Amino acid sequence: MTARTGPPVAGRHSNPSGRRALPVVRSADTHCPYCALQCGMRLEEDAEGTVTAAPRGGGMCKKGWTSPELLDHPMRLTTPLLHGRPVSWDEALDHVADKVRRVQAEHGRDAVGVFGGGGLTNEKVYQLGKWTRLALGSKHIDYNGRFCMSSAAGALNRSFGVDRGLPFPAEDLKGAEVVVLVGANPAETMPPFMRFLQNAELVVVDPRRTATAESAQLHLQPAPGTDLALANGLLHIAIEQGYLDHGYIDAHTTGFDEVRQTAAGYWPAFVERITGVSVPDLYAAARLMAGKRTAILTARGSEQHAKGVDTVTAWINLALALGLPGKPSSGYGCITGQGNGQGGREHGQKADQLPGYRSITDPEAREHVAAVWGVDPETLPGAGVSAVELLRKCGDEVKMLFVLGSNPVVSAPRATRVADRLKDLDCLVSLDFVLSETAGIAEVVLPVTQWAEEDGTMTNLEGRVIRRRALRDAPDGVRSDLWVMKELAARLDAPGHYDTDPEAIFEELGRASSGGKADYSGISYERLDERTFQWPVPGPDHDGTPRMFADFKFATPDGRARFVAVDHRHPAERRDSVYPLYLTTGRVLTQYQSGAQTRLIPSLGGTPDSEQFLQIHPDTAVRHGIGDGDRVRVTSRRGSYTAPARLTADIRPDTVFSPFHFPGAANVNAAVSDVLDPISRMPEFKVCAVKIAPAARP
Ligand SMILES: Nc1nc2c(c(=O)[nH]1)N[C@H]1C(S)=C(S)[C@@H](COP(=O)(O)OP(=O)(O)OC[C@H]3O[C@@H](n4cnc5c(=O)[nH]c(N)nc54)[C@H](O)[C@@H]3O)O[C@H]1N2
Ligand SMILES: Nc1nc2c(c(=O)[nH]1)N[C@H]1C(S)=C(S)[C@@H](COP(=O)(O)OP(=O)(O)OC[C@H]3O[C@@H](n4cnc5c(=O)[nH]c(N)nc54)[C@H](O)[C@@H]3O)O[C@H]1N2
Ligand code: SF4
Ligand SMILES: [Mo]
Q1: Does the keyword Transit peptide apply (predicted)?
Q2: How far is the CA of 150 from the centre of ligand 4 (A)?
Q3: Cα 456 to chain center, whole Å?
């Protein structure tokens, strides 16, 4: 069986194939396996077993079109591996269960941990949280969402009392007059999302002139890590120019006085000095946003910082001062990243969380969830630690780790040290369908299903619950993540029930989330066959909640949105004479995340973006004796990587950029810092200090 793919062009709707069409033997209406936009996708399999993907109504980017190429890929895992040797499922699972028992007998239950992912279905993350707390009896579970939208989540909870990335349908953005994109590059990271922005004037805040910035009315190009000062500076100007909505502030918010006092200190000239954005541009941006239907959207560029929560808070403060949240086609939103980045943060794979966005330290929440699980609340462990902290404990307090839905050897900050930590474990277990770099160092690798072979639900960037539908069965030898949990629970004589039927798990998830903030209790697979629902959906007759703040009621105890005064701090590392440049990191259109999946897809290869590169300003390159295409070694206080130079005036002269899709000697995360935000525990992926030098050819 082979995969045939459509045109390698972002967002095109046709799928011309050179081949004669064979009869379609199977089809399924599902969604793309990759990002949080979760583009609707129709999969078709022909008589020769070739699978094609095409959009259903909306658009799709090149990654969606080519996604079926991984289904029958020669690198697809179809047998469990023990120390790299193919073994039977029984041998692999017996070995794993035996290791769990031995490690826990010697070091306690918390010595076994779980590292999950925001790409896993709701059913998987729900059952994974339950399985960790009951079958392993461990507090140690966290996931890669800490690397992703956790800073926005922290700020949303603090200001609005609830964390749903977009509190309104993306379609509403078509009615916005101005959209401010702060550290977001959707033209590459979610190309079909751009159609929602086509009617708006765009303000793009990015240290690089990206494909998104190309289409902007105004591009502000601040130094990495200075967005907080920028937002406070815009608020200063809004106050000075009388752009505020005082009626809104009085009626729907608390805490403005302190924020006004803080903003008073952010004089435009002072903000220009911190950010590098000129005073006239600051005024132009504030003027554009004032008195309009304006939406402010942040993504990873402004969030992946050691002050990510406060930075997002500063933009929310600005939105509140202009009276935006709750008004039509206006407000603040975070562009969530991973396929189930939203649902993945709601149902209990977070260290401090139980299903329905409940807190694991709240006695009432523990009682409710324990009742659904049929156990005594006393038996539920307490809160564990965040992703980076969990990785730091590996080989030390944590002796055994299960990884599913993440490839931290490539994607975690200080990746070289992370790999060392994982090698120090008594046992690393990886569930994956390809031999990712993390699976590559695992003692046990368990081959699992891909998206086209499973049912489930995902919650997209609008908090919209959608159905994933199987096209066909998995290849021989492959099992589902759910089946693995059930089998191991049985071998461990674990309390609790573990299903393999996603619909049964979703029904249980509904009950466990009932009454919580992210309430799914009114959604069923049957209802999802008719339509989609944006949570909360508190009952079977409830139609969902497309617009969370439509009546200006926020999810805080007093129903008002909270202004929170926040001050600028410098990045954890500043440029100096030894490390004179800022390194920032991110994504290119054709690769996804750690690249474990997309680097294997033939149709995504062979372009300049299918290999690592270093984006660098020509003036900076000249000063370092570097020409276009020359190999460069980039070194921080933690480590280094090499990449060919790509000279362009699109980046600030004090900043260089590389994507994080590439492993080994090209892995930018060898250099990236793991300093954390105090609230979200988000690492500072988007800024550290580096030096560069020409590198010898490998
Ligand atoms: N092609 C592709 N698409 C993806 C993904 C992928 O891996 N590949 N991943 C998905 C996921 S999980 C996520 S989280 C999203 C991420 O989506 P985005 O947030 O759009 O992606 P990034 O490239 O990480 O960062 C966006 C921009 O932030 C800029 N930036 C860097 N530092 C700063 C700063 O200090 N301030 C500001 N204002 N901007 C800064 C970068 O130059 C970059 O252009 O994409 C999703 N979509
Ligand atoms: N320098 C730098 N580093 C970053 C970022 C950055 O901007 N800069 N961004 C961060 C962000 S936002 C994110 S989200 C992370 C993402 O980085 P990772 O957490 O590494 O995410 P993926 O590369 O998507 O890894 C998913 C792995 O799980 C497998 N997989 C996919 N679906 C399933 C499933 O259903 N079950 C199982 N068992 N396995 C599955 C895939 O094959 C793959 O090996 O990277 C972070 N790292
Ligand atoms: S934009 Fe995201 S969901 Fe849509 S096709 Fe591309 S990767 Fe898939
Ligand atoms: Mo992400």
Answers
A1: no
A2: 10
A3: 19
Number of Cβ within 10 Å of residue 622's Cβ equals 12
pLDDT confidence of residue 308: 98
Helix runs in 402-500, H state only:
408-411, 415-423, 481-491
CATH label of the domain that carries residue 304: 3.40.228.10
Amino acid of residue 309:
V
- Find out whether the beta carbon of 160 lies less than 6 Å from any atom of ligand 3: no
Is the domain of 415 the same as that of 324?
A: no
Ligand 3 pocket, residue 61 CB under 6 Å: yes
Q: Whose CA is nearest to atom 2 of ligand 3?
A: 35
Could you tell me if the CB of 66 is within 6 A of ligand 3?
Answer: no
Shared domain check, 327 and 201: yes
| 554 contacts: CB under 8 Å, gap ≥ 6 | 160, 161, 162, 252, 325, 560, 561
Question: 454 CB less than 6 Å from ligand 2?
Answer: no
499 occurs within a structural domain: yes
Q: Using most ligand atoms within 8 A of CB, pick from 149, 208, 433, 468 the residue to mutate for ligand 2.
A: 433
Beta strand spans in 51-125 (E):
51-55, 81-82, 85-86, 112-116
Q: Which domain holds residue 315?
A: 150-335
Q: What is the mean pLDDT of the chain?
A: 96
* Residue that terminates a domain, selected from 503, 518, 534: 534
Residue whose CA lies nearest to ligand 1 atom number 3: 189
Domain count, the chain: 3
Q: What is the pLDDT of residue 19?
A: 56
Which CATH number fits the domain that encloses residue 516?
3.40.50.740
210 lines ligand 1 (CB under 6 A): yes
- Max distance between CA atoms of the chain, in angstroms, equals 71
Whose alpha carbon is nearest atom 35 of ligand 2?
120
Question: Is 589 found in the same domain as 463?
Answer: no
Question: Closest Cα to atom 40, ligand 1: which residue?
Answer: 301
Which residue stretches of the chain have pLDDT < 70?
1-20, 697-698
pLDDT score at 4: 53
Q: What are 585-596's pLDDT values in tens digits?
A: 999 999 999 999
Query: Are 632 and 521 within one domain?
Result: no
Q: Using a 6 Å cutoff on CB, does residue 63 contact ligand 3?
A: yes
Tokens coding 527: 């209802």
Backbone angles phi and psi of 174, in degrees to 5: -65, -20
Does residue 119 line the site of ligand 1, with CB under 6 A? no
Beta carbons of 466 and 528 less than 8 angstroms apart: yes
Instruction: Catalogue the E-assigned strands of 125-222.
Output: 141-143, 178-182, 201-205, 218-220
- The pLDDT of residue 696: 79
